Amino acid sequence: MSADGKALIEVKHLGKSFGSIQVLKDINVDIHEGDVVFVVGPSGSGKSTFLRCLNRLEEPTEGNIFFEGVDIVDKKTDIDRHRQKMGMVFQQFNLFPHMTILKNLTIAPMKLQGKSRQEAEATALELLDRVGLKDRADAYPSQLSGGQKQRIAIVRALCMKPEVMLFDEPTSALDPEMVGEVLNVMRELAKEKMTMVVVTHEMGFAREIATRVMFMDGGNFIEEAPPEEFFTNPKNERLKAFLGKVL
Amino acid sequence: MKKKVFALTMAAVMAAASLTGCGSKEAETQAAAQETSTAQAEGEATEAEETTEAAAEAEGGVLVMATNAEFEPWEYHDGDSIVGIDVEIAQAIADKLGMELQIEDMAFDAIIPSVVSGKADIGMAAISYDEDRAKSVSFSDNYAGSSLVLLVAEDSEIASADDLEGKLVGAQTGTTGELTATEMVGDSNVERYNSYFEAVQSLLTGKIDAIIIDGAPAKVFLSQNEGKIKQVGDALSNEEYAVVAALDNTELIEKINGAISELQESGEIDTIMNKYIPAE
Amino acid sequence: MWGNFSEQFYLNFIQDDRWKYFVNGLKVTLIITLFAVLLGVVIGLIVGVIRSTYEKTHKLKILNFLCSIYLTVIRGTPVVVQLMIIYYIIFANARNKIPIAILAFGINSGAYVAEIFRSGIMSIDQGQLEAGRSLGFNYRQTMWYIVMPQAFKNVLPALCNEFIALLKETSVSGYIALQDLTKAGDIVRSRTFSPFMPLMAVAAIYLVCVVILTQGVKILERRLRQSER
Fold first, then answer.
1. Which residues from chain A sit within 8 angstroms of residue C150, using beta carbons?
2. Helix C181-192 and helix B108-116, axial crossing angle in degrees, nearest 10
3. What per-residue confidence (pLDDT) applies to C1?
4. Pick among C6, C8, C98, C193 to test the B interface (most B CBs inside 10 A)
5. How close, in Å, is residue A195 to chain C by CA atoms?
6. Is C1 in CB contact (< 8 Å) with chain B?
7. DSSP assignment of chain C, as one string?
8. What is the pLDDT of residue B57?
9. Total domain count, chain B
10. What is the pLDDT of residue A1?
11. C174, B113: Cβ pair inside 8 Å?
């Protein structure tokens, strides 16, 4: 469907409340195939909640989200099947500590996509090689550094051959010297035209690889622009104030 | 049926309570003190003169008696007090010795450790002399006797002890009934309960085929469960009961033997026996 | 003193093959404990999963309610009372005591195991559940492949301690005329009227069992920590 120019993800009137607190208000966004969307904004603005609504880790309280034309907010939709096509990378990596790296990477393709062990391992090893961690296939997560863990987490999501990758502050929990290695992997992905939605505080990185940058504040997108324009010529006052603080 | 369930639940709750109660020494002694006073009151009714004498001589010391008051008519709870043949005989002995009787009710298994460790001076709970036992505690002369009988369910085909082979026979652990059962049907066919009450419950529900028990409490159980259980066959053996004390406490045993023979001569023991076990 | 000791030893263990009571009693104690633990783990796993699922997702409301009644009743009453109720009332006509004891102790242990499992499951970071769900696993698969193995590993020492506790709790089996280790001591005591030696023997046997099991748990814990590294 996305081939004919329709959006891969269409967000319509999305709202999310926790009890009486409204976190997201009437959000409307289209994300197209190949888009590298960076979502930035102050803490507590709802960026992560928005991202987590996209694969329904948070249940939206209003609106619809169409993924490949199917409304995934609809309770009748088999969300688990759609999640297989939406890779997610977490701030805290969330690798499975009781499994080796290889097992971390192969369990979902084997159990969910019916891949044979050989097939799943071949894919996993190839991807591991590309992120430079092939030699750690038999290690346990606790034996890896934070940067290595996050690279593995990205590979774990990629092993499912997703249509879109969601990144929830992927470098926020890393020591500064490890940020680069993770960003490199993401940069490679962007080059390969992977559709990505990234919530981050890495403004320089956003400017470098994003196709679109969106500023969220108070539960809604206030400004959206290509990166150059976004950073050099912000229009909204709140965005200006925000950029003034973080740049 | 409902009544039975209730009784059992109560028994279960009480058993648990007595278990947990072991921890609270204070409550125990308090209860014991109460029991003592009621036991004395019992004695007062029959021998008013002697009781005043005993009270005057209470400095003769306290005679602590360990028993298991679940064996009517030998010793059992009646209202708030512990009564029974053993209790009254013990009271009579204490009076003779010029001592104050104090009753401690406990699990049957705990009587001997209490006596051996000196927590109690004597144990009286329809205890029979046995050669092996005499290596650990000292026995007085026999003060009373009874016989063992066989109880079965009303519809049972067991007619006498000869039919017991291969059957499950229940008894209270450590009683002569249990020892006899072990001899008769072999170790693995004996069901050893903590009290005869539970053995009777098991007989009623068909968990066991027969019970071997002292004739006197058998009568009580028979009257409580009329039409459900019956006594069959002849008396199995004659039982003689004695007081036990610590092995090295020969002085006390001698005094008790003296008291027992006096009480037997005066007919007091017979009076007590007849009071609880009316002649047929 | 030693003359008396050997005489007492002979009386309590050798004469009439009394040592057999202890051996058979230990056998009964171990059989009841082992199978009760297995039953307890099965019950505890089911109840623990139901309870933690309710806490995480607010689903299974009715099952959770039933489970909390079960936990309240079982943890609110002494095991000996439960044992007697099951033997004398619920299975009034049953003769086979060992299965009933296993059932009673298993049901009892299940309540404690359930809470061990529940806390074990709740102690697993929510991120693990989210990572599993984000890959496309449903709730049950995520629990099975990702949360439970970690929770189980975390609670294994606590489970072993429950096993040890249960071993000692089975000492009330005598209340349903079962000849477990404690009852074996009681029987010998009733034969010999010697409180010291049978009690000490029973205590020593329990102690040896518990020490062996405790050492086993320690080794297990060390192994588990190693694989984490």
1. 96-98
2. 60
3. 46
4. C193
5. 17
6. no
7. -HHHHHHHHIIIIIGGGTHHHHHHHHHHHHHHHHHHHHHHHHHHHHHHHHHHHHHHH---HHHHHHHHHHHHHHHHS-HHHHHHIIIIIITTT---HHHHHHHHHHHHHHHHHHHHHHHHHHHS-HHHHHHHHHHT--HHHHIIIIIHHHHHHHHHHHHHHHHHHHHHHGGGGGGGT---HHHHHHHHHHHH---HHHHHHHHHHHHHHHHHHHHHHHHHHHHHHHHH-
8. 43
9. 2
10. 39
11. no
CB C176, CB C87: distance < 8 Å? yes
B246 and B134 inside one domain: yes
Mean pLDDT (chain B) is: 81
Bond prior to B73 in cis (omega within 30° of 0): yes
- E strand residue ranges, chain B: 62-67, 70-71, 75-78, 81-83, 100-105, 122-123, 137-153, 169-172, 190-193, 210-214, 229-246
**Residues of A with CB below 8 A from C135's CB?**
83-84, 108, 112, 156-157, 160
Q: Tell me what pLDDT residue A178 has.
A: 94
Neighbouring chains of A at 3+ CB pairs within 8 Å? C
Which of the four pLDDT bands, split at 50, 70 and 90, describes residue B47? very low
Chain C CA closest to residue B133: C192
State which residues form the domain around B86: 60-143+242-276
Return residues 47-76 of A near C (CB < 8 Å).
55, 57
Q: Stretch B190-216: mean pLDDT, rounded?
A: 92
**What amino acid occupies position C7?**
E
When pLDDT is averaged across residues B21-28 and rounded to a whole number, the result is: 41
Q: If you measure CA to CA, which chain C residue comes closest to B139?
A: C193
The total of structural domains in chain C comes to 1
Q: What confidence tier does A152 reach under pLDDT thresholds 50, 70, 90? A: very high
Judge whether B24 lies within some domain.
no
Helices marked H in A76-143 — which ranges? Answer: 79-83, 101-113, 117-130
- Above 60 in pLDDT, residue B35? no
Q: Which of B5, B191, B205 sits opposite C93 (nearest CB)?
A: B205
User: From the list C81, C174, C195, which residue is nearest B112 (CB)?
Assistant: C195
The predicted-structure confidence for C13-38, as pLDDT tens digits, reads as follows 888 788 989 999 999 999 999 999 99
CB contact under 8 A, C193 and B179: no
What's the pLDDT tens digit per position in A2-29?
A: 444 578 999 999 999 998 999 999 999 9
B247 in C contact zone (CB under 8 Å): no
Task: State the ipTM, two decimals.
Answer: 0.91
Chains A and B touch (3+ CB pairs under 8 A): no
Distance from CA of B97 to the nearest CA of C (A): 26
CATH for C138: 1.10.3720.10
Q: Which residues of C touch B249 (CB under 8 A)?
A: none
Contacts of A156 in chain C (CB under 8 A): 135
CB contact under 8 A, B207 and C94: yes
Residues B178 and B193 grouped into a single domain: yes
pLDDT at residue C58 in the model = 87
Query: In the predicted model, is pLDDT for residue A130 greater than 70?
Result: yes
Identify the domain containing residue C197 by its residue range: 9-227
**Stronger pLDDT, C14 or B84, i.e. the higher one:** B84
- Residues composing chain B: 280
Instruction: Indicate whether B233 and B160 sit together in one domain.
Output: yes
pLDDT greater than 90 at residue B97: yes
- How far apart CA C216 and CA C213 sit, in angstroms, is 5
- Looking at beta carbons, which residues of chain B come within 8 Å of C171? none
